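User: For a reading group we're discussing how well predicted structures match intuition. Take Bacterial surface antigen (D15) domain-containing protein. Before you show the prediction, I'll give you the sequence so everyone sees exactly what went in.
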Amino acid sequence: MATASSPASVQDYPDLQEDDDDDFQDDDDDDLDDEDEEDDDQEPSPSPSDEARLESVLRRLTAEEVRIRVHDVEIRGCCRTRRAAVEAAVGSDLPRAATVRDLVRAAAAAADRIRRLGAFDTVSITLDAAPPGIPGNAAVIVLVDVAEARGRAAGELGIFANKGTRSCSVQGSVKLKNLFGYCETWDASGDLGLDQTVELSTGVAIPRIGAIPTPLVARISFLSEDWLKSSLKEHMMGVSVGLLSTMNHNLAYNLSWRTITDRALMSSNSIRGQLGHSLLSSIKYAYKVDQRDSRIRPTRGYAYLFSSQVGGLAPESKDARYIRQEIDLRVALPLGVLNGAVNAGVAAGIIHPLARGSTGSISPLSEQFYLGGNRSLMCRLGGPSSLL
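Assistant: Thanks. Here is the predicted 3D structure of Bacterial surface antigen (D15) domain-containing protein, as structure tokens, for the group to look at:
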């Protein structure tokens, strides 16, 4: 009975047996799918031996004289930026590199110069094998990939009030970057004060392009102000052109037309000789190093500037020729509390006449040193006009 009933029970429930088998197969398939997904999620990490081998290869390539030949340098990612601007930043050292070590150094320097153009968000330089048919086994192609910055315009507007001196000024500036594709920077700024002071300026800075050995910097400015505690009123319009500009060195030529009037007619004889119209011409050299973390609100670092200016170069100028030497030192020390810092600085200058003019050895009024400038010292710290 038992032997006969066993096959009958199996035959009576065939669907149950098949469903169970299907369930087991589905479970197995799910387990396999889960394992596949886990394998996909967990990327194989390089073993310590592979990392050590890679570091050894890189160390050998940069330490030994491994010969290489750059077949071509391709620049990709320039949409509105002209290729000539990027090619000038890349320089000639990269395509002339003859060893891997020289190529790595030239690539690092080129990437830094491209970043300093200020027109790109990211810069990457990679190597690729030369296409088939190129003679030489060590021929490579250098790929320079850049991503242009999206925002080309920036502006600032601020209102500054000093309750102690009852003065208020409105200051604003606008900057346009890479407007014509040369990575140039156009800027305009203005300062309007309630003390009848108006200062407007606009300028452009174009980086080195092609055969031009130095960046082009030009600026036009206008200044109108009433001198504090004085009846003198000054109007000045000037042009400044950069002759040489590097990271630390700057040589510029300044030409300005100045008008000083005395409404009270109570000036001394030495001052009356400088009233009216005059043409100021000068060449100024400046050496500047700034290692601070911020120019507006530094919390650590130091900066110093040394400048030398030769003035009175305009023909038939009634102002005496002179040499103006200035030095400005600044240091920022962090306090370690609430991101606070102590900022200290010292500035000094000297003016030495080169020849006696019609007014003796008097230097121009606008070029002389004033403690804190031509404005009040109340509620503010100031020395000779800040250079940084």
